Amino acid sequence: MNHVFQETEPLSNPITYWHVQSKHKNLPYHILVSVPKVEPPIAGFPVIYVLDGNAFFYTVKEQVRLQSTRPDRTKIPPSIVVGIGYPNDQDFEHKRRFYDFTFLTKENLPPHPKGMDWPETGGAEYFLSFIENELKTFISQKYPVDQNQQSIFGHSLGGLLALEILYSRPNCFQTYLASSPSIWWNDRNILKRNSSFSAFLPSLNSKIGLFLSVGALERDHMIHDAKVLYDQLTSITHPYFKVGFYNAGEENHLSVVPTILSRALRFIEQKHK
Questions:
Q1: What is the pLDDT of residues 243-270, one digit of tens each?
Q2: Residues 101-105: contacts with CB within 8 Å, 24+ apart?
Q3: For residue 2, is pLDDT > 80?
């Protein structure tokens, strides 16, 4: 027998790669899409958008693929996973993510932890316009999407952006998965907006949920800020809003992501109960 390695087609969940330039500044994005290899439900597949797609798309995609084979037990249905990344080999595109994930601020930025100058910030309004008006429209036209089951996952600065979207445009997604969010950014401004967020809730079109998580071995201020935010949000009583929180023991700022994913993905379904 001649033992020769031969290239074959993927067995399941092949990935489609798309390159797109945004309308604002013609910024390039690398979009990764995984679609379940089963018949879609009548309403279409749930969709999970993953920020920092270069770093986290494959981790989220594999959790969804494996656990959705037994949704009766895992409570995780077959879902489309969309990674929003950048056209390079870096896990984290430092300059682009600081621009895309932050809003303009009048506050003086804190000292950079590595003694560097901060990159350009304040492009989140344009990035969200790209997601809402360009990317989500494309995904909905190209794939069978359930318009009422769309989630976004972000970690660290991406987790902060997930919170910012929830606070400013709560109808943009139905579930917000904020892992170790950088609440410290902009003088902890997100902690000062509980009342304005509460005012948004009567305008909700459907049930929404926030899953907030942090690692027990992260910096003290990360853990403290996440708990403060959770306490603020649990004080809100509204039938269309649900919040969950998980402090992952023995996990640091990066190891926390694979640890919390199963809980986060189950929360997407649980928020309806």
A1: 999 999 999 999 999 999 999 999 998 8
A2: 101/51, 101/127, 101/154, 101/157, 101/158, 101/160, 101/161, 102/157, 102/160, 102/161, 102/185, 102/186, 103/164, 103/186, 105/186, 105/189
A3: no
Mean pLDDT, the chain, whole residue set: 90
Domains of the chain: 15-270 (3.40.50.1820)
Whether the predicted pLDDT of 241 surpasses 70: yes
pLDDT of residue 10 exceeding 80, the answer is no
Residues with a catalytic annotation lie at: 156, 218, 253
CB 153 within 8 A of CB 177: yes
Range from 126-130, 142-146, 189-193, 263-267 carrying the lowest mean pLDDT:
189-193
Query: Cβ distance 36 to 80 under 8 Å?
Result: yes
